[in-house]
Amino acid sequence: MSDYLFNLCTGYVRFKNPIVLAPMAGIVDSAFANQYASNAGLVVLGAFNLDEASIAVASKLAARGRKEFISDEPMELIKKEIRAVTSGSAVAVNVRSTTLEPLIEAAKIVKEEGAILELNAHCRQPEMLEAGIGESLLHDLPRLSAWIRAIKETGVVLSVKVRANVVNDTELARLIDKSGADIIHVDAAMEGFGADLDAILNYRDATRLFLIGNNSVTDFEAAKDMFSRGADMVSVARGVLENPKLIDELVENVTLYQKSIGWYNAPKHVCSEGDFRALAFCCLPVKPCPVHEKFRKLGYTAEEFARTKLEFAKGTMLEYGGDTCFGSLVWCCKITKPCWIRDGVLHTIGLSDVEYMKLKKQLADYVLDHARIPVNESD
């Protein structure tokens, strides 16, 4: 499969598809990744404990039966584990530490190996919270921001693994963005209800950083739900333990979907609570509609929004469509929504569904690029 089917990359890392093996402490090492995630676009190893305090906490957890990765030489273990992944998947390493210095050391090693460092701001066992690691970072945002900035000085591609619904998700996303991280990996946990898809959408509308959605992805329908709320990738963890073929199935299905529509994570329409990218599918703003509230958050007036879309359309195939509702394909909806008028125009001008959606994706980026208020500062 060509890496360019999805064209997913951040920094020096390219992903062959948008399916991720998420970290599970004491479980996801290179051997596990090679066995169950050989087709994944990204495998996240760990979590690994880097300093004496985090190792001591992990040892206590292991003593009561929890699986953990514990090593007297964690840096050597990280290097060895990265090199042992043989699938061609991109590799990330999820790490915990009570102090910054080991994170900097790990970042340098991970960058040399062409991998991603993932800062664990996610684990919530009482012992970890007491030690100041994992989710405790979400309750100390100045420290989290300072650590992100310091780690990024190494040049490593940095992911931050967080848990939704712990603090204000919009504020957290913007802090991670402005601190310089490259990826936000969101466990969209909603106690007793599976994944909180609204949380994924909130992160998407708060930042343009690369976004990985996690929690309760056990089949492609669940993955599509996260993609349509703005996740660039989705990650699976315990679902792989229940279905060892899960990652293969997800990769196969998302590949077929991308080949058929050209934008695998196209958003829901704005009138169906879609994210900012869905402005690419909106009608001319001439009647009361949720589109007005959406584009105003980006600082557009109705006239500016209309002019921006028409500027993009000029010279492209979206300029055609005189018989459509508003005289141009630039105002037409998502290809998965039935419309015989739109489809008739596409057939007449010889524009495939895939090419139409690729243009809509470019339009979405154009609208966001030209917003008066950047996404990470919008209300």
Automatic annotation (TrEMBL):
Residues 21-253 form the DUS-like FMN-binding domain. Pfam families: Dus. InterPro entries: Aldolase_TIM, DUS-like_FMN-bd, Methan_mark_9, MJ0144_FMN. This is DUS-like FMN-binding domain-containing protein. It comes from Methanosarcina thermophila CHTI-55.
